[in-house]
Amino acid sequence: MSSSASFFSDLLTSITEQGRALLESRLGRPGEVSLADLCEALLSGRGEASGVAIAGEVLERYRAASRERKLAFFETLRDQFGTDTDEVRAALDALNADPADQALLHRLHEVSEPRRQELIRRLNLAPGGTRALVDMRSDLLSMLREVPGLADVDRDFEHLFSSWFNRGFLVMRRIDWSTPANILEKIIQYEAVHEIKGWDDLRRRIGLADRRLYAFFHPALVDDLLIFVEVALTREIPGAIGPILAEERAEITAEEATTATFYSISNCQNGLRGISFGNFLIKQVVEELRRELPGLKTFVTLSPVPGFAGWLRRSLESGDAAIQDLVSEPQREALAAGAWATDAAAAKPFETVLPSLCAHYLTREKDKKGRALDPVARFHIGNGARLERVNWLGDLSPNGLTQSHGIMVNYLYDLKFIEKNHETYAATGAVAASSTVTKQAKLVPDAKPLVPAA
Amino acid sequence: MSSSASFFSDLLTSITEQGRALLESRLGRPGEVSLADLCEALLSGRGEASGVAIAGEVLERYRAASRERKLAFFETLRDQFGTDTDEVRAALDALNADPADQALLHRLHEVSEPRRQELIRRLNLAPGGTRALVDMRSDLLSMLREVPGLADVDRDFEHLFSSWFNRGFLVMRRIDWSTPANILEKIIQYEAVHEIKGWDDLRRRIGLADRRLYAFFHPALVDDLLIFVEVALTREIPGAIGPILAEERAEITAEEATTATFYSISNCQNGLRGISFGNFLIKQVVEELRRELPGLKTFVTLSPVPGFAGWLRRSLESGDAAIQDLVSEPQREALAAGAWATDAAAAKPFETVLPSLCAHYLTREKDKKGRALDPVARFHIGNGARLERVNWLGDLSPNGLTQSHGIMVNYLYDLKFIEKNHETYAATGAVAASSTVTKQAKLVPDAKPLVPAA
Amino acid sequence: MSSSASFFSDLLTSITEQGRALLESRLGRPGEVSLADLCEALLSGRGEASGVAIAGEVLERYRAASRERKLAFFETLRDQFGTDTDEVRAALDALNADPADQALLHRLHEVSEPRRQELIRRLNLAPGGTRALVDMRSDLLSMLREVPGLADVDRDFEHLFSSWFNRGFLVMRRIDWSTPANILEKIIQYEAVHEIKGWDDLRRRIGLADRRLYAFFHPALVDDLLIFVEVALTREIPGAIGPILAEERAEITAEEATTATFYSISNCQNGLRGISFGNFLIKQVVEELRRELPGLKTFVTLSPVPGFAGWLRRSLESGDAAIQDLVSEPQREALAAGAWATDAAAAKPFETVLPSLCAHYLTREKDKKGRALDPVARFHIGNGARLERVNWLGDLSPNGLTQSHGIMVNYLYDLKFIEKNHETYAATGAVAASSTVTKQAKLVPDAKPLVPAA
Amino acid sequence: MSSSASFFSDLLTSITEQGRALLESRLGRPGEVSLADLCEALLSGRGEASGVAIAGEVLERYRAASRERKLAFFETLRDQFGTDTDEVRAALDALNADPADQALLHRLHEVSEPRRQELIRRLNLAPGGTRALVDMRSDLLSMLREVPGLADVDRDFEHLFSSWFNRGFLVMRRIDWSTPANILEKIIQYEAVHEIKGWDDLRRRIGLADRRLYAFFHPALVDDLLIFVEVALTREIPGAIGPILAEERAEITAEEATTATFYSISNCQNGLRGISFGNFLIKQVVEELRRELPGLKTFVTLSPVPGFAGWLRRSLESGDAAIQDLVSEPQREALAAGAWATDAAAAKPFETVLPSLCAHYLTREKDKKGRALDPVARFHIGNGARLERVNWLGDLSPNGLTQSHGIMVNYLYDLKFIEKNHETYAATGAVAASSTVTKQAKLVPDAKPLVPAA
């Protein structure tokens, strides 16, 4: 993989002295040419003969800049590289006179494009440009709240990245123990769900016959990953994460497995936030595994329910009577104290009620847009998966207890039904669930209606 | 290279039966779902769960369609997937009320985007989508003249391809005799300037120490090329193509060479017409060669002058006195008859006047936009190159005689001056030329002014 | 493949000046150090510190030498680098005293090894040494007849090459249209059975769905082949070569095929004569194809019978009555004239008798060692294959007519029976043949006994 | 690298049922065929048609056997697969009659070869055979002392391995942080000189600009290493190992370095003991680095002196007066106690005497064959290196103190002088040393003569 790295370092990397002098003379002033000047030169087309070099210089100067100067650069993008309102005004006037003219409509579309978009496209001319622009957006995202109006700038990055990182340009690769170490160390670093505790732990996840890891790469981000998913091949649907990550366990051969469990999925590039890959990756891995291992019949996730504990606390506090009736005062205290999970006797009283409340939470609780309230549910249900099982005591890690009261759930990917599930969910908000889960949810009597009022 | 092909055939390739039934039921009618229906489903987002499959089906059906049905498909794209004028109207109204509101401006930009653009992006989800879309545009370009309004459709393809085939995503590779044969046969097929006459001829161009060939690839167009350039390493600037392509000639080592001559550059993808790569490729090759072979001091082209003979004929016919005075009636007849070139005595009278007329043509004759009239000159001069030399009897092939009266020219790429040359040309239309060429051009007395009136 | 080439050119390539001066001073004479001197220095161990360099110098000087000097070098190897007879004498004396002493036996084995063997091993230290030594033996083989005693030298090369080119060190690769051109051109050059008429013909043999080509490589012979076999995937056992090599024919998919036909097998390295690879290659290809295409049930060759026409002519001439009775005088004349094959009427009289004679020839005629007389039969029958079918009018090329009277035969590789067939043949000389072939052979009445007298 | 693994698992892996029945019937007894029987079948040539399968079965059965059965197998090799003494006797008789007959000499050499050698060659036919045979010899070496006569068996392994692992078949590769993890974990495991403490430590040795690691591979030992050397690029010759391995240190660029220091060299395959690679590896790395980094002027080792402390103790004990005089009684006690090194005051008294004794030890103390007594010195001096510097307090690790009294030394590889150094050493035993070291050694007055008496 690394051999292709050289492709991207093969270009003229600085503007010639003559070019710089030219820029300065054109700008009518000696001395340092500013980043904004360079951007204007790049956009003007007059710098076309050395566009690659100018783009490289902008990106390099940006990279080396302080946080203050970076912020100032984004403000420049916001203020000086937005839509040219004079041009829009002219196009509007023309269009007002003849509202159906396609050429005028097209002209309007063109001139209403913020100048930033073309600037970003041209910055991408530089070797390593895509990498630098993704990092630039990562900076930008961290500043959005500080400065008003930067969201406009971000919208343009997101628009272009959606096109550039189109699924058609992504490459899926299996990661295993013969993958170069520089890729593997990134896996360790990027894993966001169940921390990888060093190289031995990593090897247990990719180097054994019943474990797999697949990732999406983009050719322009050499030696880096976009997203990856970890898979356990098992003989049944697992209900807890502990046995999957255990140091000592009975390995099976890939051919013995009937079930593929997606137990962790991690996005790797902060600068690509909002560009969705997970849906495609899961489905492609399902296809890949089906082809390689015909014995696999079931494809599920083993997922946390990150919003459950928070939702339950709020429900109990806010006086939702149907919920409150199911949890006694001592139980509430035990939940808040958090010590119940490690003691079988203390856990017993929750064994029925918590999974039921969780089933209710996942299938009926919605956000303002009528989507599943839980973010992980929103992702998988939106992909057309079905909520298959709610597992009691699935994740007893501190984080698992704090967020999900120890519960983990399985979402089932059945390619035959994902379209129908997705369609129904999109149209009505109804969450596809197994009959068991549906029954569990019914323990909560006075439930909210399945679909929020229109 | 071919090993990566499998990445792109790794996806679910057809909509499930359930998915198709769903589409049909949603459309309220049984039977065949039309291409337009599928495109709507893809755009609607309701088909999101199986977007990859729907995109694949659209592209496969398109591929298998007759020319009539393809044309009908483009008409559908023109008529049903243009800009949503109601939305534009609403956005206009809002903006008319508050012309400076950035969010409204952005909204206007969004809704004025033809729906085709998002459709094309989603079609690219399919495995092999980019390849199929490039081929689709190739079809479209061949139909532009037949059907009004298809240029609007093409504009959207071109806009997206400009972004997708941004120089930042291209990969340059050297092609040599150890390159896979399936790539090499494409070189033979694509060469557009000096035909490659089979594998032995190809080997002479890539397998010898003083010959090079470099190409741009795009990761999504597996095993195919975008553009390539052929280079001869020589001891001086060559004036004729014959010795370069000769079967028998004295080979030199790469280290002995002082000059790299770009003697052929060919675009390979008809569907990418209008997306410019040549400028970047030449400059990257210059950089690559400079690094590898420090002995190289001069980088030139050996180029045809494809518009020269036509321009001269028109000038002589149209009664341009300054030109007519330089060419006697018998000479005109000899030129028209075309037999002069192979006979030294017959050629002698043209030895001074034709190169001078050519120098004049290249440096002073402009199109309506003030650019060099000759298309090859327009390209190299626009890149910042300098017209270095006009070579008498450079290409005695039938084509060379018919188009260029046998003349070939050298454009010099001197990285130190390309910015300045480009800038001057862009600002004033002045063509950078060596003093020799400038002197030659002056033989044409009553020359047009160097720059067209504003 | 070519990327690994650099590994082998990565070494110090000449002895230092100091090293050369040292050699000269040691040899007690100034001036040119001879090849023999260098070889002695290499063997002496005193040159150990620069063994790689000395070996490289010997090989380079050899390569550049004239044929005379090469011959002289081999004579030196014969005369000065044979067994050290003094040492053998001493070891013999010791062993005569105590004939069962293992250490003495071992000592005898060591000292009876010609010094050439260690010399050849040390020459292999040089980068590219294996390649150079294979070429050296190719020269040697061409001189064997000219000079007495060179066979002794050759025996040492053969002994070492048998070990170095052990099947365990060979790598099988499929060759197809995505193979580098420098490998493909060697295929064209090396094909020895059915000439490849240029790149288009090659493409028909490797670039279509129902054609395959597999080769053995050795890691030390970078970018070169040892042996390759061409395979046609068909729906039945073919009886003629014409349809297989035809420019126009109906291609089938690999999955439709039931039969794999090995229609050409070519050794590539003259310098490896006598080192057998074909047996291993055929069997490995059978295994490979069985795994990839479970639909393949039959593995056969389509082979010439190169000794048939010569044997028949000799039999008719030498007055073997049983044979003579089967061929009338006019038929003999027609056979000798050779014009019968292209004329159906003229061919008719031979339709039964020639295949029967051929079946007889292949199954019953033996050489002095009791092995099949025909060299191709000897190879396949020795591998455990069975003579399956004798095909009338299988190869009407001039060569096919001259050598085989147009007959081609199929040898069947049935892995279940190859051991038994081989064993029986090795023990008794009996050639495994189908019942049809056995019946055909019986037309020749007074046949030689199946097995030669002991 | 791992992609080529599949080449070697591509063969028929078991004898067919028919083949096994055949073997049994031939052996005249039903039931299990023994390992010895299989070896005889393999050697007999009668099993030729399935030689690959038989070889595979022998190796697989061996692999799965207990230590007892493995030992029994080696005894069988010793007793039943040695030299055929009858044949030797016959050859001897013939040769006694005509002692100068080359053909008889050659015959004698052939028949005196133990049958084991051909057996081992044929075992190598199996896929993975070389790997299995190297592991087999590793077992054998561990049993040599237990059982008399196994050294004869080992000699045959060593003879063949010397030929198969000839330097001409080795491939050098740089190992860095983009190397597959399965190779890297072997580096961690094999490092024998300065332990690698996990992946972070490894990364410091291969992932930084001023560190290198090079290894030899053999194509038949897929994904495994033969030997590797670790290199530090520095600005001067280092005198201590601590700063080189330190977690925190100032990194320099490769271009800034003037000196390449080989600070660790590790053999990886126990089964290849006695086959020498280190000499070639060091010299090839020197060449590689010189080409890549012309700024490198000095190539040295930083080596332990593993025999020094032991030799000194013995010298003091055995009453060598010249040595005893240099070390006072309290000093001897301090040395024995070992606590002096961590205390500057306690170390002071040794600062001159220990390095001098070490210089003496390295340059003058010889083994019975007249070679340097210290094993590491023997290796580098034998390669033609020069003892450049003796470093006080170079390695304060427990091991460094115990073996070398904390001293480390530099051997200098100057390609210009390695031949002369090697030659002088081979002829006279004289150890090449810098003038400083020579002076230090002279502190030991009544030194042994430089070269042992003949």
Q: Output mean pLDDT of chain A.
A: 88
**Greatest interface:** C-D, 80 and 80 residues
Helix content of chain A: 40-55%
Largest sheet of chain A: 5 strands, mixed
Number of helices of chain A: 22
Q: Order of strands in the sheet with the most strands of chain A?
A: 1-2-3-4-5
Succession of helices and strands of chain A? HHHHHHHHHEHHEEHEHEEHHHHHHEHEHH
CATH topology of the largest domain in chain A: Butyryl-CoA Dehydrogenase, subunit A, domain 3
User: Can you identify the CATH superfamily of the largest domain in chain A?
Assistant: Malonyl-CoA decarboxylase, oligemerization domain
| Whole-number tally of structural domains of chain A | 3
Shape of chain A: globular
Task: Describe the protein.
The structure is a homotetramer of 454-residue chains. With 454 residues, chain A is α+β, with helices and mostly antiparallel strands. Chain A has three domains: 155 residues, Butyryl-CoA Dehydrogenase, subunit A, domain 3, CATH 1.20.140; 134 residues, Aminopeptidase (3-Layer(aba) Sandwich); 134 residues, Malonyl-CoA decarboxylase, catalytic domain (Aminopeptidase, 3-Layer(aba) Sandwich), CATH 3.40.630.150. In chain A, 48% of the residues lie in helices and 10% in strands. Chain A is built from 22 helices and eight strands. The first copy, chain A, has a five-stranded mixed beta sheet with strand order 1-2-3-4-5, sandwiched between helices. Chain A has a three-stranded antiparallel beta sheet with strand order 6-8-7. In chain A, helix 13 links the parallel strand 4 and strand 5. In chain A, helix 2 packs antiparallel against helix 3 and helix 18 crosses helix 22. The longest helix of chain A has 15 residues. The interface between C and D is large, with 80 and 80 residues. Chains A, B, C, D: InterPro entries: Malonyl_CoA_deC, Malonyl_CoA_deC_C, Malonyl_CoA_deC_C_sf, MCD_N, MCD_N_sf. Chains A, B, C, D: GO terms for molecular function: malonyl-CoA decarboxylase activity. Chains A, B, C, D: This is Malonyl-CoA decarboxylase.
